[in-house]
Model the fold of this input.
Amino acid sequence: MTRRLRLALIADIHHGHPTQTKAGPCALPLLEQFVRAANDMTPDVVVDLGDRVNDLDHEMDLLRLREVAERFGAVRSPRVHLLGNHDQVNLSVEDSETALGVKHLSSTMDLGGWHMVFWAPASRVGAADGAYRIGEADLAWLEADLGTTTQPSVVFTHVPFDDGSMVGNYYFGDSPPGAAGYINAGEARAVVQRSNKTVLVVAGHVHWNAVNVIDGIPYVTIQSLTEMFTTWPHPAAAWATLELTPDTLDLRVFGRDRVSLSRPIKWPTTHWLSQDASSSRWVSRAEAGAVEPSRPPLAGVRGVILDLDGVVYREDTLLPGAPEFVSFVRRTRRRLVAVTNNSGRSAAEYAEKLGRLGVPIPEQDIITSAWATAQYLRRHHRGARVFVVGSPALKRELRAAGLVESRDPEYVVVGYDPGADLAQLTAATRCLLAGAKLIGTNADAVRPTPDGSIPECGPVLAFLEAASGQRAKVLGKPHPFIVDAALDRLGVGPGEALIVGDTVETDILAGLARHVRTALVLTGNTRHAPLGEPRSTVTAPNLDSLRLQLVDDAGTASSESIDEPAENSVPE
Done:
């Protein structure tokens, strides 16, 4: 449940010598006025959007940065500082971190039911063309973060990515693409729009107040504290307040260049209609999992992401139609990747089991939540220390990804482990209370067996969350990271894929997170067609029935023109 949240914002302080239309010598007294106003209003958070100095040389820039940091030290509310491009000309990232007492990494803050994202992609000018570019790792971080939260989100960053008009802007009016924003800004907007969580994006950098609404999301830039080109010959003395309620956002910019903006909060799952069918502008009904009257719901499927437990088998018992389904997918020249949230075995062990059961799927076409968790940590926290509650397979994956097991960890990683005991959970709890972060391979509550369901990873995570007060980051389904990995191996786009599973909370939500169509089979955790949302694209009693629903682009059943294999085996 969200509550009213109030923030104080300041952008582009530019303390130092006068440059062009930046009144650098006025910065400190104006910053002191902002600090007094912020302390009077007692906001929940104070956000500094970056560019604190006018770059001259290392010695002078460091002195001026320390003077700015001293003024911020009087702020009584929690504060966040983003890194601007001018902050990096003569200063290192470590210089800014030491002076301000913060880490300049992308981070988040959950407050009052809101998810605040402080995104810090590289903001140095990139190549010889003078353009800013967002790196793949920064885009992946933003997508992963927005994919895991359930709260309405606000993104704060230094360089805007709305591609707004710069006509009339003193600095950027005649700039080439990628100077006032990012040359690949559309990729960041696509991430924000696909998240179905973001209600506002706030930036600085361009030294004026601007609002650009895209797909119902306001992209706002805040005027610089010391800018003069809109208020000549005086500095704008600009700073802002942002109030968020469950229904509205209210932004007020104070100083000589005042602006007031009040807008209803856009319902995050609704999108504008557009003639541009790309994922960055509009998601078609078919891609979103809805049925278009003129087209069968599974038309155009070129790749299948197949769950295992409760779909292909239950323990060592093959489920109806599994061999025929896998054979059919391959015989119709579709690609197939198996994705399991069970972290108890390696891909090689799953390949051996599937071959023994008569449904051969090669190791390279199997993705486990243990592998996905290890790869995520390798990409974002290479070489980190981990304490593991999980299977030997999980520990092998983590070691292979360069993670180091430790009793003084940075992360506690939890997977399926039927042998976990109170001593392990006690040790994990102590690590978490000492500052380690909680990571889960998956949050499944139970897994089906012939004798009934047994507890999975979810209950262990719930125990540790309650004991530590933390909320786990879960990397298995429905996290977008594991879905993207499966799409990469399939070599198809989201609109050409189908996720097949037996669990609404993991398989179906994974499809919704990436606009992939879904098929719910009723042979595992779900035994009856569920009512209400979220809904799968189709529901089938088993894989044999689902096979008959796969159609070709013309809308006719593919199975009508293909002979079924005589044996329950799949050719390599």
